[in-house]
Design a protein that fits this description.
alpha/beta; 7-stranded mixed sheet; elongated; binds pyridoxal-5'-phosphate
Amino acid sequence: MIAAVVQARMGSSRLPGKTLADVAGRPMLARLVERARRIEGVQAVIIATTDRPADNAIVAFADQAGLPVHRGSETDVLDRVHGAATRFGASVIVRVTPDCPLLDPVIAGRVLARFREGGGLLDYVSNTQPPTFPDGQDTEVFSLVALATAWREARLTSEREHVTPFIWKQPGRFRLANVTHVEDLSHLRWTVDEPADLEFVRAVYRRLGAEQPFGMEDILELLEREPSLLDLNRSFTRNEGYAKSLRADRAAGDAPGGPFMDTPRRLTRSEEYFARAEKVIPSATQTFSKGHTQFVRGVAPLFLQRAQGSHVWDVDGHEYIDYPMALGPIVLGHNDPDVDAAVRAQLADGIAFSLPHPLEVEVSELLTEIIPCAEMVRFGKNGSDATSGAVRVARAYTGRERIAACGYHGWQDWYIGATTRHRGVPAAVRELTHLFAYNDVASLDRLLDAHPGQFAAVIMEPVGVVEPAGGFLEQVAARARAHGAVLIYDEVVTSFRVALGGAMAHYGVTPDLACIGKAMANGFPVSAVVGRRDIMQVFDEIFFSFTFGGEALSLAAARATITKLRNEPVIPHLWRQGRRLQDGYNARARELKLDGLTRCIGLPPRTVLTFADRQGRESLAMKSLFQQEVVRRGILSAGGFNICYRHDDADVERTLAACGEALTVLAGAVEADDVEARLAGPVIQPVFRRA
Ligand SMILES: Cc1ncc(COP(=O)(O)O)c(C=O)c1O
């Protein structure tokens, strides 16, 4: 059934009792009901009022008019409308409000017709997104299914008080359409909130005759004849009620938001937190890659507040499709229900214990089942724990000190001393780490030849952003073994993302040791060194031991994450969605003749965008402009895509649309040679450069 649901109550902050106020001899609500009944396609008009005693008057009115009536919460209007719709069997809801006694049934009928033309493919149609009709012609039509989803999931004050924001704020999730007027008439105020508005409406009824079914065109003609009528209520703003409940959201500390809708963005709270952070936190962040130099200031948020699935919300309430995914750990999606349930269950049992916990055994056993090189396991917290533990055990095992490294391996002295950000690392330590180039086995050969018999380990990311050239991984493995060095794969990024067994399983080359982390526990902090038994046993003799090594919440999360990765097609999903993004991005870049300047490279579960100027030099300015333009469109990307199990088709489509627009801006800027001039803030900065 298609029903017009009229939410009516006596309470009103500015005009109490307005709903039953007299308009040309009948209550205002009766005027609206008359008009709602004339909307073509509407089969019933239902009154949804509150259970407050004052609203007995509304119920009496409805009873007298023979209208079905439902009573519910005054503030949770979403619940009230949902209750009315389900109780009287409405499958399509036409939402109108009694403060619109000049509603034109023909216009409302057009909104309903648009919904029906969708043939079940639309969830929500209105004439308010954006408004082009006079204020007071607002009509929204939506399915009970969409309403029920909002009813189940909406949490913000604004979403509960105003029924539909949960739906229209999520164009990626709900299928939306808008009916527009050729001319923007949204400045005209025909709604009733203030005494002056009521005066205006009464004046219109007096002139056009209460018994005539007059519509918008008649009122427009009247206003042309008698423009002074406009002065009656000219000074009031549209949609004050919604603005008020947005303020309530913020007061409650839970901010409203909507992707893709709020330009120019307000980042007030981000900036406030940043100002406070600068006073108490060096660099204002715990992790450089999340810091303020990594995104374009003034456009990108500085602080995030909450996350769900593939989306995140910043502290100012803006919603984004998330691609950093917390720098990689989130593989199932934020707040995965299975992982979170496992953690909650463990929380009830305890967090950290004075003796080993069975989970240490169980997760170790799981890892030995899925990771080719894993015969034994030791846990850490960060990836850096794992790489540093692996390097130390390799040194102890071989009795040697030099390390050949390729890739990024974390913050500890042995590695970071080899980069440009090496202040504080003793020269004696720095001299022991040598970097070689990916896909360049000769660069490794030169190191090994220069220091015969001195390398304890060759540690490398088996795949970073560039894929291994044919035979490269095999050649490195052969060189390391011939030299007597331990081959360590740093799979902190690739583990649990590229394949269940990591990149070593994907490429079929098995190292002696591997370092795993990031996605292992879907956001909980845990990493591990895994590998050959004879080497791992040397952990007995070195010092790799810390208070939180066997912390149980993260291990419970790891068990749940790995179990889900094993049982559900998570990794194929990452490949599929990642490939769609990669192919779509590169196709758009080609169309815009940008393919020499920007590309999406890497394995689909985790891709990276490259930007180079016409001379082929890496361009952080171009990367900044791209990032700025996508963040404006509700996409948070630091310059690549980490896919999670919850990135659905709508996310991918939305992202590709935003990328297409951002690339168009970039193409224009490259053409005009004014990339930097188009940035709202400074160019983003690299964290460090390798030495
Ligand atoms: C390949 C690789 N190894 C090691 C690390 C260090 O991990 P963490 O930052 O957890 O210490 C990272 C972090 O990004 C990484 O990408």
